[in-house]
Amino acid sequence: MSPRRRHLVAAAMAAPFVNSLRAQERFPSRAISLICPWPPGGSSDAVVRAFGDSAARVLGVPVITENKPGVGGTLGATAMQQAKPDGYALTQLPLGIYRLPHMQKMAFDPVKDLTHIVCLTGYTFGITATLDAPYKTLKEMVDWAKANPGKLTYGHTGTGTTPHLAFEEFAHKAGFKAQDVPFKGSAEIVQAILGGHIPVMSGASEFGPLVQAGKLRLLATLGRQRTKVFPDAPTVAESGWDTVSDSPFGIGGPKGMDPAVVRVLHDAFRKTLEDPKVLETLDKFMQPVIYMNSADYSRYAERTFEAERATVERLGLAKKS
Fold first, then answer.
1. 49-68: b or e for each residue (b if 16 or more CB lie within 10 Å)?
2. Of 55, 101, 171, 252, which sits 20 to 30 A from 32 (CA to CA)?
């Protein structure tokens, strides 16, 4: 091989590494878009914005949060299918993106069509009721629902979301049926229950301030253990129905992102978990720190996608082929 040919081969082999370094050096140079696939005003919106604002200070460019609510929190993942994999288009990745493709036709595969950058936190789910509801405990609600078949109505944050399926699984194990009312997000469901339009809601940590203010009654939480904020509230599992649900979530982007850009974004969002303002927001909504790096988060996505398939099939909600 001639010296010139050896030089060209060496340059070609080095090009990906050099390009990756150059991308890392110049990224980011402009504002980054971060999709929150939930309505403004809810707990998810507040947390995603806190992460974005904190990451912006680390990255040195604005991180602009954009709300795209609907379809069970999957519109962010859908938007990534048309976005350039340059690091300037990001989205929150809620658990529903691994579940809904098993229930209905979606425009993306959550494992193959997304880059999982970093996992940051999760939710505390709970079942709450209005103060004037004819039940004050979870068992009393179950007994009432059995004595009044089909009359119990509850709201949740969207068909196929964790609050929806967790309640349905609990109801199945408890032996009662309820009428579900889907909402686009936590802000809407809070307005509905406070307005007396629904007596029960299965939701995320937005119920915390309302319970603390004496506006709602917490019947049970859906974690493995009782929450520190409400230590007197039992879990659904310890109440006698083996239903446990937590929902880690993080930040992702389109498939095919440069590993160097992913590292820059990972490091910036990882740093947000040391920001007192972010931690204060997480505490406010009872959201624990659940950190996974890019590799671990990608493996989590693979495992969860298969686990959610089994859950959907068990509940009879799988899409027809």
1. bbbbbbbbebbebebebbbb
2. 101
